[in-house]
C-alpha cells in the first residue's frame, strides 16, 4: 500500500463521527475522552487499519517510545564470548518489550568524540531515557545526560559523587561471603583475581576479599584481570609463580574463574584437591566447567529488567529509589 492509500487520521475521525482533534487524543492515549466516544474512534481505527504516523505522534506526545542502552565498552567486547553482556541486554529488552518500547543499543568507547556522539543523540529528542552500564572510571556521561534533562539510570555503582540513580548488587558483601566460605573450608592461602580497578564491581569485590582476609588475619595475595577468560588464565599463572603454596582463589567473575581453572590444569594442580576456586556471576557455563564452579549468583537478567523498569518510571515523571540493590547467593559446587 502506498503512502497516499493509507488511511489517515481524518478518515478515522470521519468514520467515527468526531473531530480530528478528538480522534488524535484517543490515538495518543488521552484519558479525557468519554468512553463511548473512545470506543467509536478505536472501532474506526480497527475497521480502517489505521497506523499512527510515529514521527507526527512524537511531535504531539513528546515521546519517542525508545530507550537507549549505552554500553561503555567497545563493540568487540560486548559481542565477545562473555555472556554477561548478553544477559544484561536480554533483561533490558524483555522489560522494554513488555512496555511496548524500543531498545536503541549504543557503544561508547573511551574517546571524547564517542561520548559526544552518544550525548548528542540522547539529548536530541531521539530517546525517552538512557540506561548506562559497564562504566569505567569517573565516566562523565551519566551526569551530563542527567543535567541535560534525559532520564538516566545506571547498572552499577558510579565512581563519582553523582545523584544519578543506579541498580546493582552488594558486591563487597558478596565477595566477603565467598572468601569466608573458602576460609571456613580450611583453606589457608587464599588469593584473588580482582576485576578492573576502574570499575566499581572490580573495586568493591576486591574490598570484600581484603575484608574477609583481614577478619581471618591472613595475607592478601592479589592479581588483577579485566573480567575475561584470558586475563583470568594469565593472572592465575602469575599467582602460582608468586605463591606456589596457595590453596584457593576467588575470581571476581566466572569468566576469569574459568580461565583460572584452565591455567591450574596446565600447571598440574587439581581442583579442588590442591586449589579451590570460587567465581562471581553464576553464568550458565559455570555448571559445565571442569569441575562445576562454586560461584556467587547475581541476578544479571533481573538487574537488566529492574534498571529498565526504573528508567521507564523516571521517564514517566515518577520518583524512583536512588539506589536499588538486588540479592546475591553463594552457589556451592565441586570447585570449592
UniProtKB/TrEMBL annotation:
Keywords: DNA-binding, Transcription, Transcription regulation
CDD domains for the chain: HTH_LacI, PBP1_LacI_sugar_binding-like
The species this protein was found in: Dactylosporangium aurantiacum
InterPro entries in alphabetical order: HTH_LacI, LacI/GalR-like_sensor, Lambda_DNA-bd_dom_sf, Peripla_BP_I
SUPFAM superfamilies xrefs: lambda repressor-like DNA-binding domains (SSF47413), Periplasmic binding protein-like I (SSF53822)
SMART domains tied to this protein: HTH_LACI (SM00354)
Transcription regulation is among the record's keywords: yes
A Gene Ontology molecular function term of the record: transcription cis-regulatory region binding
Domain HTH lacI-type: 7-61
Protein name, per record: LacI family DNA-binding transcriptional regulator
Coiled-coil region: none
Amino acid at each position: 500500500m502506498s503512502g497516499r492509500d493509507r488511511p489517515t487520521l481524518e478518515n478515522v475521525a470521519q468514520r467515527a463521527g468526531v473531530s480530528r482533534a478528538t480522534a488524535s487524543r484517543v490515538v495518543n492515549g488521552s484519558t479525557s475522552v468519554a468512553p463511548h466516544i473512545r470506543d467509536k474512534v478505536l472501532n474506526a481505527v480497527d475497521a480502517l487499519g489505521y497506523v499512527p504516523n510515529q514521527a507526527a505522534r512524537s511531535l504531539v506526545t513528546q515521546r519517542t517510545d525508545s530507550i537507549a542502552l549505552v554500553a561503555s565498552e567497545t563493540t568487540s567486547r560486548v559481542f565477545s564470548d562473555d555472556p554477561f553482556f548478553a544477559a544484561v541486554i536480554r533483561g533490558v529488552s524483555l522489560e522494554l518489550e513488555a512496555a511496548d518500547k524500543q531498545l536503541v543499543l549504543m557503544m561508547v568507547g573511551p574517546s571524547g568524540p564517542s561520548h559526544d556522539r552518544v550525548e548528542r543523540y540522547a539529548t536530541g529528542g531521539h530517546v525517552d531515557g538512557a540506561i548506562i552500564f559497564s562504566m569505567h572510571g569517573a565516566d562523565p556521561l551519566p551526569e551530563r545526560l542527567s543535567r541535560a534533562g534525559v532520564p538516566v539510570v545506571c547498572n552499577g555503582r558510579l565512581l563519582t559523587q553523582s545523584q544519578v540513580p543506579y541498580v546493582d548488587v552488594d558486591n563487597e558483601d558478596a565477595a566477603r561471603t565467598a572468601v569466608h566460605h573458602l576460609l571456613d573450608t580450611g583453606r589457608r592461602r587464599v588469593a584473588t583475581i580482582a576485576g578492573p580497578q576502574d570499575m566499581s564491581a572490580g573495586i568493591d569485590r576486591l574490598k570484600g576479599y581484603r575484608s574477609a582476609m583481614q577478619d581471618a588475619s591472613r595475607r592478601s595475595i592479589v592479581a588483577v584481570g579485566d573480567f575475561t577468560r584470558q586475563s583470568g588464565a594469565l593472572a592465575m599463572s602469575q599467582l602460582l609463580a608468586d605463591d606456589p603454596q596457595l590453596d584457593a582463589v576467588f575470581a571476581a567473575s566466572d569468566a576469569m574463574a574459568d580461565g583460572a581453572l584452565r591455567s591450574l590444569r596446565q600447571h598440574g594442580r587439581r581442583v579442588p584437591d590442591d586449589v579451590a576456586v570460587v567465581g562471581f556471576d553464576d553464568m550458565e557455563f559455570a555448571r559445565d566447567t571442569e569441575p562445576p564452579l562454586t560461584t556467587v549468583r547475581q541476578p544479571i537478567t533481573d538487574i537488566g529488567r529492574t534498571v529498565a523498569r526504573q528508567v521507564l518510571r523516571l521517564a514517566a515523571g515518577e520518583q524512583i529509589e536512588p539506589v536499588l540493590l538486588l540479592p546475591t547467593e553463594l552457589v556451592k559446587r565441586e570447585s570449592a
